[in-house]
Amino acid sequence: MSEVSGSAVPPAVFWGAGLLGVIVAAAMLGAAEVKKAVVAKPEMVTREQWGSQARAIGEDQKQVPKWVTIHHAGSKWKAGADPAKFVKAVQAWGQREKNWPDVPYHFMIAPDGRIFEGRPIEYAPQTNTKYDVPGHIGVELMGDFEVERVSEAQLKSLVKLAAWLCQEYKLNPDEIAGHKDRAKAQTVCPGKDLERYLADGSIKNWVKQTMEGKAAEVRVKEAIRDGPTEMIGAVAATQKAGK
Asked: What is the C-alpha to C-alpha distance for residues 167 and 144, in angstroms, rounded to an integer?
């Protein structure tokens, strides 16, 4: 017999109660762990859906993700263009001109906010500039933000994607940066209209709020002085999100 609080309790009952306590504690811990994952994976257009024809990437290109780096395409978006065809064109150009096996980025975001899967995250990105690329998750927004303005849909998708990436790979949102911040004095990427959201801390703050389960108020701001005033064009009517 075991004594609990001065009362005689049969061993089977005592150990049964103890086991029940362990089970309840484990369940509570599990619930707490589940609750931490507040950012759901954003919906994406998979490589299979957009028709990727990637070549094999060498094992020497494997990486451990450490940072999120933001890019723009650097080419002005043509209103009515098809984002899927654009992604395929980037892949084909890289293979033809650079001998890159796949698109250089891990994700590409269309003007309507759709996120396209690029190369697998476990492989380092590629770049026309010189910086140590292993560890970087490359996220490109379609458009040239030196001459046109980023869309609100793109900003919202960027924040959701970055928050999910930071959560999944345990990355510090404060270290999200633009391409020009990584490759000093080599590029204007991601363009002045997108860069200002990084420079003033907006993207980092929106990402943190999203990771905390809060509704981040992601909004396009007024055009900056000496910056572009024209909003990025729409995608092809039959290619819009949800159609």
From this structure: 29
